[in-house]
Amino acid sequence: MSVTQPVRSPRRRAPRNSLNADRILDAAIRLLDCHGAEAFTMRALAQQLGVGTMAVYSHFRGKDEISDAVAQRLLDTIELPPAGSGDPRAELREVCLGVYRLFSEHPSALQLLTLRPMRGDDAISVIDRMLGLLCEAGLSRTEAARAHVALMQYTVGSALWNTRRARALCDDGVRDRVRAKIDALPSDRYPSLVSLAPELMRVQENGAAQYERGLDAMVEGLLGGR
């Protein structure tokens, strides 16, 4: 007795000679943003492009080179404010917001930049601008260095927190289960959490707005009355 094999739909292949570096990087960013760095392989990238794996190798030497190019392209999207506005606090805020938006919109960028050494001029430009603005605002050399690290830690950490929280709450019923768990907490053991639960849930609904509020507080605290 013969067994009927399932019919496989043919893989849609890219038109001949249509593959180029830009198309590869576009596909790599989509793959990374949708599935994360763990799922990023040359084979998966080739499948998304509808080409053989060797076709990708004809443009890039391997995954590491593509990762570096993707990180550089994403860093290119950070728009530094025009210099010389006379308001270093406002410029510093805009730089931090640009970094936050990048990591919020493209969580894969954070993974790539932490897994691979920094290689692009644009990342260096961001660091240089932030340090210059902090010195312009009146901080000493050491204070400027410490403030830069603190702002980057807060910015990157906030982007990571908010993107992961948003993904976790995407599943049906998760928000209701979280609320129910908090409502069930004994108030005698967790008095502050139970009392402030409504406010806590409300401010966490808009991660970007909460980041900006915290950023303003940090800048004010770091620069003080300067």
From TrEMBL:
<keyword id="KW-0238">DNA-binding</keyword>
<dbReference type="Pfam" id="PF02909">
    <property type="entry name" value="TetR_C_1"/>
</dbReference>
<feature type="DNA-binding region" description="H-T-H motif">
    <location>
        <begin position="41"/>
        <end position="60"/>
    </location>
</feature>
<dbReference type="GO" id="GO:0000976">
    <property type="term" value="F:transcription cis-regulatory region binding"/>
</dbReference>
<keyword id="KW-0804">Transcription</keyword>
<dbReference type="InterPro" id="IPR004111">
    <property type="entry name" value="Repressor_TetR_C"/>
</dbReference>
<dbReference type="Pfam" id="PF00440">
    <property type="entry name" value="TetR_N"/>
</dbReference>
<dbReference type="InterPro" id="IPR036271">
    <property type="entry name" value="Tet_transcr_reg_TetR-rel_C_sf"/>
</dbReference>
<keyword id="KW-0805">Transcription regulation</keyword>
<dbReference type="InterPro" id="IPR001647">
    <property type="entry name" value="HTH_TetR"/>
</dbReference>
<dbReference type="InterPro" id="IPR009057">
    <property type="entry name" value="Homeodomain-like_sf"/>
</dbReference>
<feature type="domain" description="HTH tetR-type">
    <location>
        <begin position="18"/>
        <end position="78"/>
    </location>
</feature>
<dbReference type="GO" id="GO:0045892">
    <property type="term" value="P:negative regulation of DNA-templated transcription"/>
</dbReference>
<dbReference type="InterPro" id="IPR050109">
    <property type="entry name" value="HTH-type_TetR-like_transc_reg"/>
</dbReference>
<dbReference type="GO" id="GO:0003700">
    <property type="term" value="F:DNA-binding transcription factor activity"/>
</dbReference>
<protein>
    <submittedName>
        <fullName>Transcriptional regulator, TetR family</fullName>
    </submittedName>
</protein>
